[in-house]
Amino acid sequence: MSAPSERPAELDRSDPESEIAARAEAYRNWGRWGADDALGTLNFIDDAKRAAAAATATTGRVISLAQAFDMAGPQKGWRRRTNPVHTMLDTGTDAERGQGFPHGLGGADDVIAMPLQCSTQWDGLGHIFDHGFAWNGRRAGDVVTSEGDLVTGIEHAASVIVSRGVLLDVGRHLRPDTGELADGYAITVDDLEATIAAQGSTSAVGRGDIVLVRTGQYARTRREGWGEYAGGSAPGLSLTTAGWLHRTEIAAIATDTWGFEVRPNEFDAPAFQPLHQVAIPNIGLTIGEMWNLDELSDACAETGRYEFLLSAAPLPITGAVGSPINPVAIL
Questions:
Q1: Origin, by domain of life (predicted)?
Q2: Do residues 89 and 218 both lie within one domain?
Q3: Which pLDDT value is given to residue 1?
Q4: How many domains does the chain have?
Q5: In whole angstroms, what is the distance from residue 258 CA to residue 262 CA?
């Protein structure tokens, strides 16, 4: 049986069900790390990988890859997602008027309420299901209940996601005039490989790497306003990149867009996030979204080096299917 096509023009745009199923079956990693696995492709990161990644940090420069977590964020209520609501519990004004502490001590406290996937974040392995099945072939209802993800909660990855990061600046490579791909542009395997070739040896992708794909959409929204960024049209990876995501044995991947894959999706029949359906529950791939890759893009272009130490630990929220993060690249 031949492998699914890696050319978007060869997708049967009328049959998303069959196209998704072919890739899910071809690239399924169920059982690869045992029946009790909770990490999926994050298993590709080991101590040796982290030690080698640390050696790529030669200048000590640190770049945060997070968007701001505030009320001015991209969310507009789609899928009940809101921007973070930050509320002060105690303020300097309270301290001036006395808070009941001895010897003049005063303090401030605050609280935040937010969906876990409203800004820069990881999609955990319990976030997406395929025909009622979660990662590693478990029934979705046995994994995620009203008590949270009982099996693959994001807390399992809290000390794992430190590795070699690789920036694939597809926006800058394909559109050197603007550095920004158009909404609806489907990034292909050829695009990824061409970007790697153009950037040079430091952008070679392999086992245990965390790949960051910059489309430039985030830069456009910061210049023109959020618009329909959260839930709207976007450049992103084509469904046909599923085989590349599998065979490169990367640990995780993230983009500067809200949904990782191209939007609208690549079918004339109703389809929603087909690459998520293949990548998360079948490949076991952790996916990051809404990362701010612009400063990193400039730094890599200036130095000609596209690899770095990347630390992107999720909050160890017990049973969560995703987590806000402040990923940092150390150059």
A1: Bacteria
A2: no
A3: 67
A4: 2
A5: 10
For residue 2, tell me if it sits in a domain. Answer: no
109 and 122 housed in the same domain: no
Strand partners, 253: 211, 287
307 domain residue, yes or no: yes
Beta partners for residue 167, in sequence order: 212
Residue 93, in any domain of the structure: yes
CATH at residue 26: 3.50.30.50
Mean pLDDT on 174-188:
98
> What span, in angstroms and rounded, lies between the C-alpha atoms of 259 and 271?
14
Q: Determine how many CB atoms are found less than 10 A away from the CB of residue 31.
A: 10
**Centroid of chain to Cα 83:** 18
- Write down the pLDDT at residue 40: 98
How distant is the alpha carbon of residue 98 from its chain centre?
Answer: 45
Residue 78 has pLDDT above 90, yes or no: no
312-317-318-319 Cα dihedral, nearest 10 degrees? -80
Mean pLDDT along residues 185-207: 98
Residue 254 DSSP symbol: E
In a domain, 51, yes or no: yes
- Same domain flag for 109 and 121: no
Residues 269 and 199 occupy one common structural domain: yes
| Mean pLDDT taken over the chain | 97
φ/ψ (deg, to 5) at 323: -155, 140
- What is the residue range of 91's domain? 85-113
User: pLDDT digit string (tens) for 14-43?
Assistant: 999 999 999 999 999 999 999 999 999 999
What percent of the chain has a predicted confidence (pLDDT) above 90? 99
Taking the whole predicted model, whether its pTM rises above 0.85 is answered as yes
Pairing status of strand 210-213 against strand 121-123: unpaired
Q: What angle do CA 24, 26, 32 make, to 5 degrees?
A: 85
Contact (CB, 8 A) for 306 and 206: no
